[in-house]
Amino acid sequence: MKVIGAGFGRTGTLSLKIALEILGFGKCYHMRDVIMRPRHILAWHKAGMGKPVDWDFIFKHYNATVDFPASLFYGELKRKYPSAKVILTIRDPEAWYQSTERTIYKVPTIIPYWFKRMVFPLRKFIEMTELLVWGGLFKNKFSDRELAIQIYNEHIQNVTRNVPKEDLLIFDVKEGWKPLCDFLDVDVPENISFPHLNTGDTMAKILNAVRILPYIVVIIIMISIGTLLIYPK
């Protein structure tokens, strides 16, 4: 493990993930990687229940990590990988709250309960985020804007206090390549713009698509069943 991301979701973590991979730090772990790996979902779900995480299993094929849920364990990860650098992604607290509230905070509620029951990994994924993030980190009070921003600011203070200064970069992705490359002691990539991905508008469009996905699945299943009844083999 070479780089540990300590920033909350919606602070440019996907942009940082791609930037680190462009810089040659190997595969970088992100919440998107969790979604695609049911065994990882179960491992993080257990972490939400207070059980230890098998870091060697989680990061077997990764050299860096950013975003929830791993960023919640930055201190434990720093002790596990003491030579790793820590990057704390930040943004304006009000902008962070607005972006989070309109995007990832809505995920548990936009998917119908009946569909969660049908798709076991999806149900466990949502339960995991509720255990670790919305319930664990924000104490089921994320809708309280002032409290959520307070927790956000306290996290920044805690990271700053607990990580040695020489191993920590407090980074706004709007700053681009130079501070990141200076910190990691690598050259700025030539003719490659710093990635700026997963904007709030893009994420909102994705969530709108996710909202109707369960009904599309049911329609496809019903059409398939109807076809088999009309045209049996």
Report on this structure.
It is a single chain. This protein has 233 residues and is of the alpha/beta class. The chain has a single domain (3-230), classed as Rossmann fold (3-Layer(aba) Sandwich), CATH 3.40.50.300. Helices cover 57% and strands 7% of the residues. The chain is built from twelve helices and five strands. The protein has helices spanning 13-22, 31-35, 38-48, 55-58, 74-80, 93-102, 107-110, 113-118, 120-137, 145-162, 177-184, 200-230, and strands at 3-5, 28-29, 64-65, 85-89, 168-171. A five-stranded parallel beta sheet has the order 2-3-1-4-5, sandwiched between helices. Helix 6 (93-102) crosses helix 10. The longest helix is centred in the C-terminal third of the chain and has 31 residues, at 200-230. The model is unreliable at 214-232 (pLDDT under 50).
- CATH homology group: P-loop containing nucleotide triphosphate hydrolases
User: Which segments are poorly predicted (pLDDT under 50) over 5 or more consecutive residues?
Assistant: 214-232
The outline comes out as globular
Number of self-contained structural domains: 1
- How many DSSP helices? 12
Largest sheet: 5 strands, parallel
Largest sheet: spatial strand order? 2-3-1-4-5
CATH topology: Rossmann fold
Which architecture per CATH?
A: 3-Layer(aba) Sandwich
